[in-house]
Write a structure and sequence with these properties.
seven-stranded mixed β-sheet; 16% strand; alpha/beta; 2 domains; transaminase activity (chains A, B); Aminotrans_3 (chains A, B); homodimer; four-stranded mixed β-sheet; lyase (chains A, B); Aspartate Aminotransferase, domain 2; 15 helices; 495 residues
């Protein structure tokens, strides 16, 4: 297999011609062509090595030989649907179950986090007979239509967003920027009470709540870590209303948080969701995912009378790959590594917070870490442009990092789990250098009425950096008849 | 890799414990454990070989070495998301485009037929600004919630089915059993007029139609082949209403129909859908799929302001596999084989129709063939029990075939494309023997109020065969507090 078929310019040209323009590349003014990857490193067509701090999908490391071998050997033998008995399917279900509280014992294998979350909703609708869903602000749960409806992260992007009447958006339990902060005496109760208020309001309108859904730690929403006890209190309210608790582990599961295998377990032993959804890291890049629930919910779903069949879900190749991922996590103690290296990375970033006023908050569990940048530590003015500046400059240093959250000002670390202390040293050292440099060179913001032609001029400049207050996204879209890439939101020139 | 880990009884036990009970196996009273497969043959744990007449997913043959090699080599090199440039993605898009009419030039790569059809709806909703969807009776378009809504094949299974007010069900253009049959002077116009009537009724209610969606040939719906010209006329009506035409090629694409690469092309050169969705055969079992549309639709979707990102969709491994599938189809002239062997199979089945009154209709294109069984050629009484009897007896002869359609009385041939004339001889010869035997041994139907205990007695008998008039499905479900497997609908004893 040739790693490169076309020169980069031709690849870009064909992509423009044949790939949906809504599908954005990283660093769109100068995208990266990656031809191979190993562990936590990716290589471009010229052999330049990039340190990968963002790919939580390549969970046990890019192209891990044990995973590749398991997939290749099973492909050679058999890849068929789950209407036939196969040991990989049941063995994998058994292995996954062993990582979970006992009552979460029934699995449905599907192909993506989106399929998993959609099925979770179907299970909840069927079990409860209710319709409404409570979701967190800034949440992202997937790209199929039912999930766009419960993903404020997505539907807020729409010019003509119309929120479904059966979807209720609860406060994000963000202790740094949210309504109830670290200085609040009991933020867990306060945020859970907000969910309860939504339930009451729904009841007043004659609606009934089928489910509360949340990522165990909010990822796209800004690396938010809910206060311990919050999920228990929410579950009480939701259960009282006859609804279910869905924990979305698509981004954060499989040992990433270090102390536990699942991020919902951070809330305490006394918390067990009714449904858990898994995705991204589950197959180290292979398209697969899973929904796990209780026997009661599964039986209710069956009793609807509708069979569930998923053509690819639970095929022997996907299961072989899933098993190999579990083996590698265990064999290489990657959960332990996440705890150790994640802790080390967090400490390094805390030092940056002490050194640079721009670094407002460091929060993380294991190798899921966020660094929120602010221009003012009291007003918490989001340092969106500066976050984008760092991302772009790190790219020039061959380090891949991203910024996310509603203000795109949270540096988001979620690297392959084989990330090392040396890697952490390298990325934080570069951030330190950039932050020092940035502070010496003041930013000049372009006016709000930036035009298409100035965009064109700027696009050519490698020193272009990106700035935005999230609300200006729409302005740009309206003026230029095209939406902005999240990475590229709007442009700022350094003077 | 060990092909068998557990004894079969343990596999069944673990499956009952850990796999969602809505996920049914084939032949549930005595399911098959398959451990390897090659070409059109599958092998159980004892090395018994089964001829596969049903797996349209293993399109170029089970475990095809060229596909396995392409997947394994790319897995070793790189598997990452499409935010990075990669040549496999653009080369694959270019190759797919070359099989389609020129205006279908923009691809979105996703992970399953369900993800593809859901995205097709999102494209149509966004492009038209309308909401309503027209679907065909008995249609199946996928398992995510938005598609259950437009799949009568699924929502008719629900005890408490509630049809969405924005979904309209058009007559299935079935020339054998439908409202307008082969003796109708112009069934294409008559069926298209039905769609137009639905559009008018929707308009009267103030609704607007976003899309008409149909499989190019209805598969689960009963191997229905719409009359040529029908799609053109429907497209005229739908376009006039501002809607789009979505051709679902998930089951029938990639050369299966023999004369053309895509089944919608059977309608004539003058027909081009606005959106085409692909799935099952696209990756020979690897979870992948694709939506292709026009530049206009793609730009409208982009202008909504919402980015589209699919974690696994279009990854280099999926694209390498997709490219290998296209290569094998071409290199081994599988489209030509489908035309030749499909024609041969159809002729053999036509002879069965002449010989056995039970065989009411033979219809097919290439290796997509249906044989509809009826007890009465005038009344067209569905021979559901007999169809199930054949399926079960073929299984005992180590031949895998299925029955589908709203009455589960259509024998459905959709084998891997390497199916041979010898394979066709073998399956038809066995069917001939079974039909002859069946006719000599009259069936005694169990009464409608079959009880759970009689079910238990019968379940132990290997001679048990399955019977149902589709309407009795619900009766069983109500009496036994459990839904029936489609394969196992209800039981009949041969005397």
């Amino acid at each position: 297999m040739t790693a490169e078929i076309f020169p980069k310019v031709k690849t870009i040209d064909l992509r423009k011609k044949h790939i949906g323009p809504s599908c954005k590349v990283f660093f769109s003014h100068d995208p990266i062509k990656i031809v191979r990857a190993k562990g936590q490193y990716m290589y471009d067509e010229n052999g330049v090595r990039y340190l990968d701090c963002i790919n939580n999908v390549a969970h046990v490391g890019h192209s891990h030989p044990m995973v590749v071998k398991a997939g290749a050997e099973q492909m050679e033998l058999l890849n068929t649907n789950s209407r036939f008995l196969h040991d990989n399917l049941v063995q994998y279900a058994q292995r996954l179950q062993a990582t979970l509280p006992e009552k979460l014992s029934v699995c449905y294998f599907v192909n993506s986090g989106s399929e998993a979350n959609d099925l979770a909703l179907r299970l909840a609708w069927e079990y409860t007979g209710h319709k409404d869903v409570i979701t967190l602000d800034n949440a992202y749960h997937g790209h199929v239509s039912s999930l766009i409806n419960i993903s404020p992260y997505k539907f807020h992007q729409l010019a003509n967003a119309e929120q479904s009447k059966s979807v209720h958006v609860a406060l994000s339990p963000d202790l740094y920027r949210g309504n109830y902060r670290q200085d609040h005496p009991d933020p867990a109760t306060a945020y859970a009470d907000d969910v309860n208020n939504l339930i009451q309001k729904a009841h007043e309108k004659g609606h009934k709540v089928a489910a509360f859904i949340a990522e165990s730690l909010q990822s796209c929403g800004g690396q938010v870590i809910p206060p311990a006890g919050y999920f228990q209190k929410v579950a009480q309210h939701v259960h009282r209303a006859g609804g279910l608790f869905i924990a979305d582990e698509v981004q954060v599961g499989f040992g990433r948080v270090g102390t536990h295998f699942w991020a919902f377990q951070l809330q305490g032993e006394d918390f067990v969701p009714d449904i858990v959804t898994m995705g991204k890291p589950i197959g180290n890049g292979h398209p697969m995912s899973c929904v796990v629930t209780t026997r009661e919910v599964a039986e209710a779903f069956k009793n609807s009378g509708m069979e569930y069949f998923n053509t690819f879900g639970g095929n022997p190749v996907s299961c072989a790959i899933g098993l190999a991922v579990l083996d590698v996590i265990e064999k290489e103690d990657l959960q332990g590594n996440a705890l150790r290296v994640g802790g080390y990375l967090t400490r390094l970033l805390e030092q940056q917070k002490e050194k640079h006023p721009l670094v407002g908050d460091i929060r993380g569990r294991g190798l899921f870490v966020g660094a929120e940048l602010v221009r003012d530590r009291v007003k918490l003015t989001p340092a969106t442009a500066e976050a984008q500046d760092i991302i772009y400059k790190l790219k020039e240093q061959h380090i891949l990092l991203s910024a996310d959250g509603p203000h795109r000002n949270v540096l988001k670390f979620k690297p392959p789990m084989c990330f090392s202390e040396e890697d952490a040293d390298m990325v934080v050292e570069k951030i330190d250098q950039i932050l020092t440099g940035t502070l010496n060179a003041p930013l000049t913001f372009l006016p709000a009425n930036i035009t298409k032609s100035s965009h064109d001029i700027l696009e050519g400049l490698s020193s272009v950096i990106v700035c935005i207050r999230s609300v200006t996204l729409k302005t740009w879209g309206e003026q230029n008849q095209q939406p902005l890439n999240r990475q590229d939101s709007c442009f700022v020139r350094r003077c």
